[in-house]
Amino acid sequence: SFWTATVITNLLTAIPYLGTTLTTWLWGGFAINDPTLTRFFALHFILPFAIISMSSIHILLLHNEGSSNPLGTNSDIDKIPFHPYHSYKDTLMLTMMITLLFIIMS
């Protein structure tokens, strides 16, 4: 993992003017050390929760507001509430996708 972190973070040095500064900031110093591991751990721990939260908010807003209406028709006629109909459907699909992932992994 040390060499992977070294190679991947050194790719940032290819960015003109800011590359070395970004690499030094990401490492937390001039070499991969304890601050680097702490930052990478925090990134790998927090990022999935942030992605799941933003995806959930997106699905909630999409189901509540609906997508764009290019024809300008009245879209309030056939609306159903988000919960329980869409939340059960989304939970079922999430469960199926996680099950499929575990089947593929095993």
UniProtKB/TrEMBL annotation:
Membrane-crossing segments per the record: 6-28, 40-61, 88-105
Name of the protein: Cytochrome b
Every Cytochrome b/b6 C-terminal region profile domain range: 72-106
One BP term from GO: mitochondrial electron transport, ubiquinol to cytochrome c
Subunit record text: The cytochrome bc1 complex contains 3 respiratory subunits (MT-CYB, CYC1 and UQCRFS1), 2 core proteins (UQCRC1 and UQCRC2) and probably 6 low-molecular weight proteins.
Domain of life: Eukaryota
Subcellular location: Mitochondrion inner membrane
Species this protein is from: Trimeresurus stejnegeri (Chinese green tree viper)
Record-level Gene Ontology MF annotations: metal ion binding; oxidoreductase activity; quinol-cytochrome-c reductase activity
UniProt cross-references to InterPro entries, sorted A to Z: Cyt_b/b6_C, Cyt_b/b6_N, Cytb/b6-like_sf, Di-haem_cyt_TM
One Gene Ontology term, aspect cellular component: mitochondrial inner membrane
All residue ranges annotated as the Cytochrome b/b6 N-terminal region profile domain in the record: 1-71
Physiological role: Component of the ubiquinol-cytochrome c reductase complex (complex III or cytochrome b-c1 complex) that is part of the mitochondrial respiratory chain. The b-c1 complex mediates electron transfer from ubiquinol to cytochrome c. Contributes to the generation of a proton gradient across the mitochondrial membrane that is then used for ATP synthesis.
Membrane topology of the entry: Multi-pass membrane protein
